[in-house]
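Issue: ligand-bound run for carboxymethyldethia coenzyme *A - logging full I/O for the record.

Environment: standard queue, default settings, no custom constraints.

Inputs:
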Amino acid sequence: MNITHIEHLGIAVKSLQEAIPYYENILGLKCYAVEEVVDQKVKTAFFKVGDTKIELLEPMETDSAVGKFIENKGEGIHHIAFKVDDVARSLKEVEEKGVRLIDSAPRKGAEGLMIGFLHPKSTGGVLTEFCE
Ligand code: CMX
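Outputs:
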């Protein structure tokens, strides 16, 4: 596996509309895309910070990964995503080392990128994503 950088940090928010002004007006970042990822039941907003992005995640339903996260832990950092060359190979590699996967094969995520999640119970409590 070849991790080159943090592709993005996912941050759970109750409302994109209420969260975006902090990133734009206080931090001076620009929201360059808002996208619904229907199969993940989230609405996302993206900001570039060098090679890394911030991905704000607003749940479209309470019964969803991000909806449950906010209900249990409140708003805040939800996951870290590493850029890798090959998601399928990286998932296989960590699985062989004993890591529990959420996604056994890559699937399409926001921005059309191929992604795969590792289970936070296997990663020291940090929901981890590989992105290609
Ligand atoms: N970070 C760390 N721990 C997390 C977590 C997160 N984001 N979300 C849940 N957990 C922990 C919970 O705290 C809980 O721990 P305890 O058992 O110690 O209380 C445990 O995981 C189970 O939590 P749960 O609320 O019962 O949630 P589920 O088991 O239903 O699902 C998870 C948890 C991580 C498997 C699920 O959220 C998932 O599949 N996530 C991957 C997909 C995803 O997050 N999609 C949204 C983003 C999409 C995008 O970026 O486009």
